[in-house]
Amino acid sequence: MTIPKSNKGIGYIRRSSHKQLDNHSIEIQKREIEIRAKAEGYEIIQWCIDDAVSAYRKTAADRPAMRELFMYIINNEADAVFFYEESRIDRTFNSFVTQIYNPIKALKPNCKFFCTTVSGEWDAHNTITEMKLLFAGQESIIKSKRTKDTQNGLLAKKIRPGSRTPFGYKKVIVDKETGYKTFIPDENAPIVLLIFYLSSWGYSNEKIAKLLNECNVPSPTGNGWHENTIDAILHRYIYAGHLTWNVRKSAHSSSRKPKEEINLIENVYEPIVPPHLWHLVNEMRELKKQTKQFDTPFYLRGIAYCKNCGISLKTKVDTPSKSAKKYMKYVCPNCKQKIDMDAVHEIVFKRFSTQWTQQFYKMRSHAQRLLLQ
């Protein structure tokens, strides 16, 4: 038997964390919604679930399942929305009402909303409903402040606030009486060290990820390596032994703050990466920002100049589309003179090798004389 379109409903469920149990667990929300839908004469044809998604840090329109719900209703696939209670749909006071409820009501005025804790149809503009949304938002603000105060207190004691254990470390108890824990390198620490060495040799994040995947090196997630994962590891101060906090510009942005703006406490943990390698990788990163591309066959780009014009030489690949051989040139942008890349490299590297060998013998002779004095 085909169910009439007017009796089809969408169930929305949200859980803030995988650790969340009791009344906010997915199973309990689903059961209560099904009971309410049946009582109202609806069948839930689709579950839209935001699992481990904050309704305080993310507005309604920023949550994937909420956007999915919106599209189901707009596309005439259902005419009713069911949810557990107000804190599941919003903790920002009004984002659900302004971004989801009002637009749906404007486009589909016959669409109904039902809450398992409210008898009859749920009205977002009812005074009691507005108070519930207000309290849900206020509760999150209070929780957020308590969390930040606790984190600041721990940071003042050089203790890392609770968060995911970094790849390459394991958590151990160092004081049984207080329960104080710290991080020490684990069996994955050599992988982290290898990543830093590869980066210092000029490998791009993409190439490092490809190499690790080809060698079946275990990744933090178990789903393979990605260049973003490599980038995150290379930016983590903990691998140099430092404790950091408030690294991101905001909860809604993944952009990193400048070093001078983050909370940085030095020499808290046993480092995986030695100081010289940490600084070398950071210097390479800054150099790459200037040259735009570091892993390039044009080794002298940026430091080779035209003898006649004194202008930095540009690089150009003059390879015909059907040619198997690559023709790479250094080009003066002013006088348009070109020279083969390999020819330049051969001359420069040969001269460098000769001069370096001579200089090395001079330095060794000088050191021997100093030792004999």
TrEMBL record:
Family annotation (PROSITE patterns): RECOMBINASE_DNA_BIND, RECOMBINASES_3
InterPro entries from the UniProt entry: DNA_bind_recomb_sf, DNA_bind_recombinase_dom, Resolv_N, Resolvase-like_N_sf, SSR_resolvase
GO MF term set: DNA binding; DNA strand exchange activity
Ranges of residues in domain Recombinase: 166-293
Pfam family, one: Resolvase
PANTHER family noted in UniProt: DNA RECOMBINASE-RELATED, DNA-INVERTASE FROM LAMBDOID PROPHAGE
Designated name of the protein: Recombinase family protein
Species of origin: Anoxybacillus gonensis
